[in-house]
Design brief:
- There is one protein chain.
- The chain is an alpha/beta fold.
- About 35% of the residues lie in helices and about 20% in strands.
- Strands 3, 4, 5, 6, 7, 8, 9 and 10 form an eight-stranded mixed β-sheet that branches.
- The radius of gyration is 18 Å and the shape is globular.
- About 45% of the residues are buried.
- The model has no long low-confidence stretch (mean pLDDT about 85).
């Protein structure tokens, strides 16, 4: 039904024009729709197109003109152990190790468990230009910024606090990735909460999940994303990682369709 309403009327034009990437500016509840999983009766939308989202065309044009310093690094923060009301995330250790191997140990730094604090995050962002900030932890997006947070070691980082931390960076990260449970779940306001804050503080692209994600399969998808991004633009890298999971008999749209890209997609 979703495909029939949204894309079927345009399909012939898209094919004739050779379009490879679709960029959506969704409003209201449409922000919570996993567009990658729209199905035409034979294939998922992401099998034919790379998909990206934007909150604002003006913000998008600003992000496409920004250039990252050549000596920039990647920061990878993760929480494997359980916290109050939250179960352990055993896949995070493998995820962070795999991502650091792809990005290069000399160009990335990993902070796990007790070294994942608001202070270490802020200090690392102030120390040198950061191209990628990867946060692998629990997160929850409630109805207000104050009730929304990402889980650090023994404490929570609220969205207003995260905004201050990102704004203090010596240079805004080009890419913020949240590999977390319930990254962007909730109503349409909370779905754009992190993306809006990040883009306002200069982060060009945000990748997060619309719902609770299986941490083992999420780790595999994100590792593939980084690997593909060595050769392909961001949206195309995510497309290829999601298509790879579609071919995996263990997978289901619930394991891959929730990952959405906001902002610059090149």
């Amino acid at each position: 039904m979703g495909y029939t309403l949204l894309l079927a009327p345009l399909e012939s034009q898209l094919q004739a024009s050779g379009v490879k990437t679709l960029v959506f500016n969704p409003l209201g509840q449409f922000r919570t729709v996993p567009l990658a999983a729209l199905h035409d009766g034979e294939q998922f939308l992401v099998q034919n197109y790379a998909i990206a989202h934007t909150l604002s065309w003006s913000l998008l044009s600003q992000s496409t003109t920004r250039r990252q310093p050549e000596n920039s690094h990647a920061l990878i923060f993760g929480l494997t152990r359980g916290e109050t009301n939250y179960a352990p995330l055993p896949g995070v250790q493998r995820e962070t190790q795999a991502i650091q191997k792809i990005l290069g140990e000399g160009k990335s730094q990993v902070f796990l468990n007790e070294t994942f604090t608001p202070d270490t995050l802020q200090q690392a962002l102030r120390l040198q230009p950061i191209s990628i900030l990867h946060l692998a932890t629990h997160a929850k997006f409630g109805g207000t910024p104050e009730s929304s947070f990402i889980q650090a070691s023994s404490q929570q980082i609220s969205l207003p606090e995260l905004e201050k931390i990102l704004a203090s960076a010596i240079y805004p990260p080009s890419l913020l990735v949240l590999s977390a449970c319930q990254t962007a779940a909730g109503n349409e306001r909370t779905t754009l909460g992190l993306a809006g804050i990040s883009l306002r503080t200069g982060v060009a692209t945000v990748l997060g999940s619309l719902w609770f994600a299986n941490d083992r399969l999420s780790a595999e998808l994100l590792s593939d994303f980084y690997q593909y991004n060595q050769k392909f633009p961001l949206a195309e890298a995510l497309k290829r990682a999601q298509v790879k999971q579609i071919s995996d008999p263990r997978s289901h749209p619930a394991t891959w369709a929730g990952f959405t890209l906001w902002g610059r997609w090149q």
